[in-house]
Amino acid sequence: MFPVPRQAAVDALCSREADIRALPNETLVIHGREDRVIPLGNALTLADWIPNAQLHVFGKCGHWTQIEHAARFARLVGDFLAEVV
After folding, report:
1. Residues 6 or more apart from 17 whose CB is under 8 A from it?
2. Which of 48, 56, 58, 78 has CA 20 to 30 A from 68's CA?
3. 69 an active-site residue?
4. Residue 30: what are its φ and ψ, rounded to 5°?
5. Residue-wise DSSP of the chain
6. d(CA 76, CA 32)
7. CA distance 71 to 65
8. What mean pLDDT do residues 11-23 have?
9. How many Å apart are CA 37 and CA 48, to the nearest integer?
10. What is the pLDDT of residues 25-77, one digit of tens each?
11. End-to-end distance of the chain based on CA atoms, in angstroms?
């Protein structure tokens, strides 16, 4: 995804697929449909791998969902936390 040598540093920060698949927690995955930094496919993969995941994709939104849709983002996260706590 990133040019050398940046990709190696990013890979070192990544969790193993097996560890992600083993997450027992309710998880909210949020992504911007027009994100040009991290492809939407990454969020789809996370939502598929995490057994208790919910996925929300904001349309007309790039990489900064929490800024581009601040009020909707805050409501979504607040509602999610109210349900799982």
Report:
1. 49
2. 48
3. no
4. -120, 135
5. ---TTHHHHHHHHPPPHHHHHT--S-EEEEEETT-SSS-HHHHHHHHHHSTTEEEEEESS--S-HHHHTHHHHHHHHHHHHHHH-
6. 14
7. 10
8. 95
9. 20
10. 999 999 999 999 999 999 999 999 999 999 999 999 999 999 999 999 999 99
11. 35
On whether the pTM is more than 0.90, the answer is no
- Annotated active-site residue in 31, 56, 63, 69: 63
Q: Stretch 4-20: mean pLDDT, rounded?
A: 92
Angstrom distance (rounded) from CA 29 to CA 38? 13
Query: Between the CA of residue 76 and those of 40, 82, 83, what are the distances in Å?
Result: 19, 10, 11
* Spatial contact of 62 and 34, defined as CB atoms under 8 Å apart: yes
In the Cβ-directed half-sphere of 19, how many Cα atoms lie within 13 Å?
Answer: 3
Contact 57, 32 (CB under 8 A): yes
